[in-house]
Hints:
Elements: H1 3-6, E1 17-22, E2 28-36, H2 41-52, E3 58-69, H3 71-86, E4 90-94, H4 100-108, E5 117-118
Parallel strand pairs: 2-3, 3-4, 4-5
Antiparallel strand pairs: 1-2
Amino acid sequence: MTADENAPKPQRPEPGAVEFGAGAGGSAIVGLSGECDLTTRDALADALRRASDQPGTVVLVDLSECSFIDSTVIGAIALSHKALAEQGRRLELVIPPDGRTVRRIIELSGLAPFFTIHESLPAD
């Protein structure tokens, strides 16, 4: 074996996934995990649509398990935020302290001031 054969193989990024569920106080939760980009756009749009159909005041987008988001994800979140605001509802983000990459992307997009950002999912 050569030294190159013994070198650790680069890890492939975890593909993105989107889940929808109910949270505390009747809120709807859209959870993203892995690297979310164009490949998760349709699933994200569907989950955000389902969340906005729920009766609660708040839709939480949980980015706790998310390692990366791109402009398609940011765009979908921004559109949903706007639509919910027009209904007198809120879209809030969950980004834990160790989610520096995702938090930085939200900050660089210029959207951070428009969202309430929680460090964890709110308890009941």
